[in-house]
């Protein structure tokens, strides 16, 4: 998370430097600049600078900067995660993956470490781990009759599926991601299909970002 704060801080500073781009796209900002044109001609540049500074310091302006910073950060996370996955898949070296999964689960849910080797051999294993993290805090808050449903997967009737073990639910999630309607989807594209907002029936707010954050942490462990 320290890395995230540093990256976002750097991006915020960069956006502040090029803040005039946002100002020019803001109708209120344009209005202020136009209204102060006369003052500029009258060498009243100090007032113009004050008006611009007010815009830069405004809450809406700062929100725009931080929103753009978050967007760039998570895009960086996605690219980094996909690059790491490709490298591991190309090498075919399972041992390194087992070590990653083991180290990660020791911090998140040590009870799952016993299944680290099996999890590392699952297709899309890193994304599977990240999804169960976002859905049930790595099986700590499992759902279903036996509370073993780590991915919060539902059956055709809309109820949480029941599993005899936590790993069986994790394996089922991996199999789900191999199905035609999921196979070629990115995490962002899964939002609204795998995770559906109960009220809007659309995408879940913050779900993609949370999953990608866990993927990033897996490769950093």
Protein described:
- This protein has 221 residues and is an all-alpha fold.
- 65% of the residues lie in helices and 0% in strands.
- The protein is built from twelve helices and no strands.
- It has helices spanning 2-17, 19-25, 27-35, 37-41, 45-57, 59-91, 94-108, 116-120, 125-136, 166-176, 187-190, 207-220.
- The longest helix has 33 residues, at 59-91.
- The model is unreliable at 26-30 (pLDDT under 50).
User: In whole angstroms, how far apart are the ends?
Assistant: 12 Å
pLDDT averaged residue by residue: 78
CATH topology (level 3) name of the largest domain: Lysozyme
- Based on DSSP secondary structure assignment, what is the total number of beta strands? 0
Query: Which value, in Å, is the CA radius of gyration?
Result: 23 Å
Count of helices?
12
Structural class, from helix and strand content? Answer: mainly alpha
**Quaternary state of the chains:** single chain
Please report the first level of CATH classification, the CATH class of the largest domain.
Mainly Alpha
| Uncertain residue ranges | 26-30
Overall number of structural domains = 2
What does the largest sheet look like?
none
The string of secondary-structure elements, in order, is: HHHHHHHHHHHH
- The shape, in one word, is elongated
Q: What is the architecture of the largest domain at the second tier of CATH?
A: Orthogonal Bundle
Which range does the strand content fall in? under 5%
Helix content: 55-70%
């Amino acid at each position: 998370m320290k890395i995230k704060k540093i990256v976002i801080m750097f991006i915020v500073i960069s956006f502040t430097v090029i803040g005039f781009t946002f100002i020019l796209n803001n109708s209120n900002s344009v209005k202020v600049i136009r209204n102060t044109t006369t003052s500029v001609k009258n060498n009243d540049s100090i007032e113009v600078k004050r008006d611009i500074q007010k815009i830069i310091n405004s809450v809406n302006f700062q929100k725009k900067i931080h929103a753009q910073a978050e967007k760039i950060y998570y895009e960086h996370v996605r690219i980094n995660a996909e690059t790491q996955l490709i490298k591991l898949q190309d090498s075919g070296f399972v041992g390194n993956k087992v070590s990653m999964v083991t180290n990660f689960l020791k911090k998140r849910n040590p009870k799952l470490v016993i299944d680290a080797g099996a999890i590392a051999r699952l297709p899309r294993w890193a994304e599977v781990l990240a999804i169960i993290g976002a859905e049930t805090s790595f099986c700590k808050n499992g759902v279903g009759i036996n509370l073993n449903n780590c991915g919060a997967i539902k059956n055709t009737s809309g109820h949480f599926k029941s599993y005899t073990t936590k790993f069986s639910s994790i394996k089922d999630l991996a199999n789900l991601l191999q199905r035609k309607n999921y196979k070629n989807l990115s995490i962002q594209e899964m939002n609204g299909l795998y995770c559906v907002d109960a009220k809007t029936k659309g995408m879940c707010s913050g779900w993609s970002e949370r999953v990608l954050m866990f993927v990033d942490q897996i490769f950093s462990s």
